[in-house]
C-alpha cells in the first residue's frame, strides 16, 4: 500500500511586534482550514510562529523579554489551533519560544512541536544551531540574539512515527548543517518539517547576503536528496518591523526537486502529494547507508595545530 500523504507549507507574512498571539493563531487556523480543503493531512508552520522575531532586538527588561515565551502547549492562545487540528484531523508542526522549568532551573529554547491529527503532541524538538550572537553587535540595524535568548537544544534530532511514516523536525539555521539531516537520515526519516525566519542581511557581507535565497533552497535540497527524505520548509517572511526576511517556502522531494514553492511574501498555503515510498527507493539504491557508507574509513578529525597545518 503506497504511503502517499498530501502535505502543506503554511507560510506566514510579517507578524507585528504588537500583534497578539490570538491574531497569529487565527491566521494559522485559516490556513489550516485552507490546507484541509486541499486534502492536506500535515501542515508546517514557521519558526517562532506566534510572535514577531524578537531576537532582532536587544531587550533589557526581564519581564518584557519573558513575555515573548510560551509555557506549556496548548496554551489558552493556541488552543483554537489544536482544536481545529482535531476537528479536521489535520496534524501540524509549530515553532515557538519555549520557557520551561527543567533540572531545577528556568530554561529557554527555540522549540517546535509535531501535533497529530487528533490534536495531541506527538513530539518536541529544540533548536540546536543558534545563529548570531549572545550580545548586541555594533553597527547592526537589527541584532540577531538567539544565543542570548535561547539555549542550544538538548533533545537531539528525534524522529517520530506519524502520518504513515517517520517524521523529524529542524528549525531554521539547523537546515544549513548536514549533520542535522544525517542524524535523522540514519533513523530512516521520511519527511523533515522545518520553519525559518531568515533575514536577507544576516552577515552584513553583501556578496554573501545576496545569495541568501539561493543558500536557503540549496541547504534544504541537498539535505533532502542526501538523506532520501521529503523536506517541507516554511518561512515567516516579508518586511517584519523593518527587517526583510526571505519567503519562497518549499516542499522538496527526496530527489532534491522543489515540487511546490510559495510566490508571495504573505500568508500563503502551498501543497503537494508526498509519496513517502520515493524516499524508500532512494534508500534502497543510491543512499543505501548499510551498503555504501564507510564511516570507518572517514578518518580521524585531527585537531588543528596551527595556521597552515593540515586539518
Ligand atoms: N535565521 C537565519 C537562518 O536562516 C541566517 C540566520 C540568515 C544564517 C542568513 C545565515 C544566513 O539560518 C535563523 N533564525 O536561524
UniProtKB/TrEMBL annotation:
GO MF, any single term: hydrolase activity, acting on carbon-nitrogen (but not peptide) bonds, in linear amides
Cited PROSITE patterns: CN_HYDROLASE
InterPro entries xref list: Aliph_Amidase/BUP (IPR050345), C-N_Hydrolase (IPR003010), C-N_Hydrolase_sf (IPR036526)
Xref: SUPFAM superfamilies: Carbon-nitrogen hydrolase
CDD domains in alphabetical order: DCase
Gene3D superfamilies linked: Carbon-nitrogen hydrolase (3.60.110.10)
Recorded superkingdom: Bacteria
Pfam families per record: CN_hydrolase
The entry's keywords: Hydrolase
Domain CN hydrolase: start-end pairs: 5-278
Name of this protein: N-carbamoyl-D-amino-acid hydrolase
Organism of derivation: Sulfitobacter sediminilitoris
Amino acid at each position: 500500500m503506497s504511503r502517499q500523504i498530501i502535505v502543506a507549507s503554511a507560510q506566514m507574512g510579517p507578524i507585528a511586534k504588537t500583534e497578539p498571539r490570538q491574531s497569529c493563531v487565527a491566521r494559522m487556523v485559516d490556513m489550516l482550514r485552507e490546507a484541509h480543503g486541499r486534502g492536506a493531512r500535515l501542515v508546517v508552520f514557521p519558526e517562532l510562529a506566534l510572535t514577531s522575531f524578537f531576537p532582532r532586538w536587544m531587550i533589557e527588561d526581564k519581564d518584557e523579554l519573558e513575555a515573548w515565551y510560551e509555557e506549556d502547549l496548548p496554551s489558552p492562545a493556541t488552543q483554537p489551533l489544536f482544536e481545529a487540528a482535531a476537528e479536521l484531523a489535520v496534524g501540524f508542526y509549530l515553532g515557538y519560544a519555549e520557557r520551561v522549568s527543567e533540572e531545577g532551573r528556568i530554561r529557554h529554547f527555540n522549540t517546535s512541536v509535531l501535533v497529530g491529527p487528533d490534536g495531541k503532541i506527538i513530539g518536541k524538538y529544540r533548536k540546536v544551531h543558534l545563529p548570531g550572537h549572545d550580545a548586541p553587535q555594533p553597527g547592526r540595524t537589527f541584532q540577531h540574539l538567539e544565543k542570548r535568548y535561547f539555549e542550544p537544544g538538548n533533545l537531539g534530532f528525534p524522529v517520530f512515527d506519524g502520518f504513515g511514516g517517520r517524521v523529524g523536525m529542524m528549525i531554521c539555521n539547523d537546515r544549513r548543517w548536514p549533520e542535522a539531516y544525517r542524524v535523522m537520515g540514519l533513523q530512516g526519516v521520511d519527511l523533515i518539517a522545518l520553519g525559518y525566519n531568515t533575514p536577507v542581511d544576516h552577515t552584513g557581507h553583501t556578496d554573501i547576503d545576496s545569495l541568501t535565497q539561493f543558500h536557503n533552497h540549496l541547504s534544504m535540497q541537498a539535505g533532502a536528496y542526501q538523506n532520501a527524505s521529503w523536506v517541507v520548509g516554511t518561512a515567516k517572511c516579508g518586511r517584519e518591523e523593518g527587517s526583510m526576511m526571505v519567503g519562497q517556502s518549499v516542499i522538496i522531494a527526496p530527489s532534491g526537486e522543489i515540487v511546490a514553492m510559495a510566490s508571495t511574501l504573505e500568508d500563503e498555503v502551498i501543497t503537494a502529494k508526498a509519496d513517502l515510498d520515493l524516499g524508500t527507493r532512494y534508500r534502497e539504491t543510491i543512499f543505501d547507508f548499510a551498503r555504501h557508507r564507510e564511516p570507518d574509513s572517514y578518518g580521524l578529525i585531527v585537531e588543528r595545530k596551527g595556521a597552515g597545518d593540515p586539518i
